[in-house]
Amino acid sequence: MSSFNGPSDDARKAANVNVAIAQPEQGGGEFLPEIFKNQHDADIARRRWLCPDFPLLYSSESSPPPMITSLKSSVVKSGALFALSLFTPTHAMAAASEPNLRADDLVGVTFWVISMALVAATAFFFLEIQRVAPKWKTSLTVSGLVTLVAATHYFYMREVWVATGATPTVFRYIDWLITVPLLMVEFYIILSAVTKVPGGVFWRLIIGTLVMLVGGYLGEAGLMGAWPAFIIGMAGWACIIYEIYFGEASKINAESATPAVQSAFKLMRNIVLIGWAIYPLGYFLGYLTGGPAANSANVLNVVYNLADFVNKIGFGVIIWQCAVSETEKP
Q1: 188, 139 in Cβ contact below 8 A?
Q2: With a cut of 70, which residues of the chain have pLDDT below it?
């Protein structure tokens, strides 16, 4: 018959660690400092006692092996995707699984397709931050924030359209009120990365943006005549165009920026001139042609959705391309 001589020394130590962790006030914790340097080593010892095959990765007195260090970039990337999932509206995603978006609803389909494109762009921009030089990281982060905010609003705008058939004017302008100033700030950020930029450049871009958005909203919400509001919005857009083509921002870019920054600046301002022209076109077709309300709403939303797709993702792609080309230049 076998005999039992009591627990081994390792067993007693691990048991005492369990007491120290679970009931430190009962005195068990007094044994912990005599054997282990810290709580990490205590946890490793307990796990090795409970499961002898548990690997001892490293102690508190040694540096993490290369295996641990190599995991950091993967953890950063996984964290970016997880953070992105936290911002996705759960009830909007649940609604998306319901058969409420008809295949023949062109406007609803454009809302859905563009929301997915914005989500993909957000993940891409955030993951690529680790690839570019430090001076480009802020610009690429802002690009990811722009597409993230826009994607979130597009989920809600799709719901409004599918449920009511009405133009989601409020949600769209909330989105624009956040994302359009961020796009304008991109000009200031990329120039500030290479030279000192006066604060006046920042404020002229922001004020022009706000005038453009306020004018558009007053007209679309019916708070002002469509034509006067259209003129106010166009005036704000003209101020932005002047600043980035002929104003101080343009001069700083020509005189002080690196070739990569100059390339990004020129491509971005072309988007503001050509790509942003889609927005007043949508406003004109939706409110100034005198067509049937239903048809005007369809055209308005399709054109606006197309404009957001081109301009918000396009801005980020330009910054990413220039950042990568300069970072990886031999």
Answers
A1: no
A2: 1-99
The range of the structural domain enclosing residue 52 comes to: 9-63
Please give the Cα distance from 283 to 183 (Å, whole number).
Answer: 20
Residues 6+ positions from 124 with CB-CB distance below 8 Å: 320
Contact 310, 274 (CB under 8 A): no
Is position 190 within any domain?
Answer: yes
Residue pair 153/171 in contact (Cβ under 8 Å)? The answer is yes
pLDDT in tens, 25-53: 444 444 444 455 556 666 666 655 555 55
User: Quick check: pTM over 0.85?
Assistant: no
Alpha helices, DSSP H only, in the chain?
A: 9-22, 32-35, 39-50, 66-69, 71-86, 90-96, 106-128, 134-164, 169-192, 199-220, 226-245, 248-256, 259-274, 278-283, 293-308, 314-327
CB contact set of 308 (below 8 Å; sequence gap of 6+) = 114, 118, 150, 154
Tell me how far apart the alpha carbons of residues 209 and 308 are, in angstroms, rounded to a whole number: 15
Residues 269, 296, single domain; the answer is yes
Q: Do residues 107 and 186 both lie within one domain?
A: yes
One DSSP character per residue, 15-32 reads HHHHHHHH-GGGTGGGGH
Question: What radius of gyration, in Å, describes the C-alpha atoms of the chain?
Answer: 29
Greatest alpha-carbon pair distance for the chain in Å reads 101
Closest CA to 279 of 221, 234, 320: 234
Answer whether residue 74 is part of any domain: no
Q: Which residue has the tokens 């929301």?
A: 115
Amino acid present at 267:
L
The answer to whether residues 178 and 252 belong to one domain is yes
In angstroms, the CA 28 to CA 132 distance is 51
- The number of C-alpha atoms within 13 Å of 144 and in the hemisphere containing its C-beta is 21
Q: What is the mean pLDDT of the chain?
A: 81
